Amino acid sequence: MFSKLTVNQLPKIWCLFNQRNFGMAPCTYNQNAIKTHFTVTLLEAADKMGRQVALLLKQSPLISELRLYDKNSSVCVVAEDLSHIDTYTKVKSYCGMSVLKHAVQGADIVVSVGGCRSQLKECSKELFEKNLDDIRSAIMHCMEFNPKAIFCIAKPPIEAFVPMAAEEYKKAGVFDPRKIIGITSVGCMRANYFIGLISGQNPADVQCPIVGGISKNCLVACVSQSRPGKVHPQHYKMIQDSISIAEDEVLKSSGDGMTCLSSALGVAKFVNAQCKALSGVTNCVDCAFVKQTGHVCQFLPYMASIVRLGRHGVLSCHMPKINGYEAHCLKRACMYIKENIKLGESFVTGDHKKDSKKTAAPVKLAT
């Protein structure tokens, strides 16, 4: 059934996607652009991944102010160190729950990172419970003090936290599906790498969209739609399997459980693309886990797809064409995605109390 999912004007969107406009490609500007520099708040910035993302964002000419927040006091040291880098971006640090309100107020983009897998056997539910308190605090403060900010989630499991954020925003009456985005750029990067490796192409010249999600059992690479199209069909399964176990392979080789370097770059690329879109650039296209609309929503209310970014977040969602094998993979991934969606939504609706020992800790908002 997924093989029939198509959208109008996909060829035009696909052309933009193939430009690899991730903060480096030539831009088409809207002459009516109002702002050209933006304030970005990075949550859990003292985390391993947070530090890497902060380093990359400090080098962005589109960010005038980079706010680093963490409960750990080492975030102040990170900010002080980064401030010595001779770029335009000003760095500020915010430490402790009492100042989270000030960290998110007035920000154009709020990004939640960190909490990556540190063990091979760590499942989505374990990640959810490990990261729940941090992400929920972020959601509640953004919802209360800056609901118009674009809220980007890169904390796993994204497939659960995006629906959870959406439900919280709905309860508060401030939900805008364009502004809650799960970052999945690292999935595209891995797909490009393995396609280049197997087909003998330069990965920098490859562009492959992904659908489904970003977790191991949820990601489906649309290799049949990759450009340039030099991949033999017999290699599709090999590429898909390689992408699925990529994070596991790094974890096996890592002594400290660190698998966040490529993920950090993916987050930075997406944030840069969103900043460009905010400034009026009209050709910003990537893949992200978002609320779906139209006929795709009948199968999955949330999933990763091609998205076109605009001044208010996601401008439009587009499902690429997929072949029979990819449709089979997406159908299999659908079960895991739905489980994660239910996991996230149930923590807001209260259904989790029936089958979970953990309850969400009350969030105290700063006054």
Specify the CATH class: Alpha Beta
| Major pleated sheet | 9 strands, mixed
Task: Give the low-pLDDT segments.
Answer: 1-9, 21-26
**Helix count from the secondary structure assignment:** 11
> Looking at this structure, what is the CATH superfamily?
NAD(P)-binding Rossmann-like Domain
Overview in brief:
It is built from 11 helices and 11 strands. The chain is α/β, with parallel strands linked by helices.
Record the SSE blueprint.
Blueprint lengths: L9 H8 L20 E6 L4 H10 L5 E8 L3 H9 L7 E6 L4 H5 L4 E4 L11 H22 L4 E4 L4 H15 L7 E4 L1 H15 L10 E3 L6 E3 L14 H9 L1 H8 L7 H18 L6 E7 L10 E9 L2 E6 L5 H26 L18
Parallel strand pairs: 1-2, 1-4, 2-3, 4-5, 5-6
Antiparallel strand pairs: 6-9, 7-8, 9-10, 10-11
Q: Would you give an account of this structure?
A:
This protein is of the alpha/beta class. The protein has one domain: NAD(P)-binding Rossmann-like Domain (Rossmann fold, 3-Layer(aba) Sandwich), CATH 3.40.50. Helices cover 40% and strands 16% of the residues. It has a 9-stranded mixed sheet with strand order 3-2-1-4-5-6-9-10-11, with helices on both faces. Strands 7-8 form a two-stranded antiparallel sheet. Strand 5, helix 6 and strand 6 form a beta-alpha-beta unit. The N terminus is likely disordered. Its EC number is 1.1.1.37. Homodimer. It comes from Ceutorhynchus assimilis.
Features:
Lactate_DH/Glyco_Ohase_4_C, tricarboxylic acid cycle, 367 residues, two-stranded antiparallel ribbon, 9-stranded mixed beta sheet, globular, NAD(P)-bd_dom_sf, L-malate dehydrogenase (NAD+) activity, Malate dehydrogenase, mitochondrial, Rossmann fold
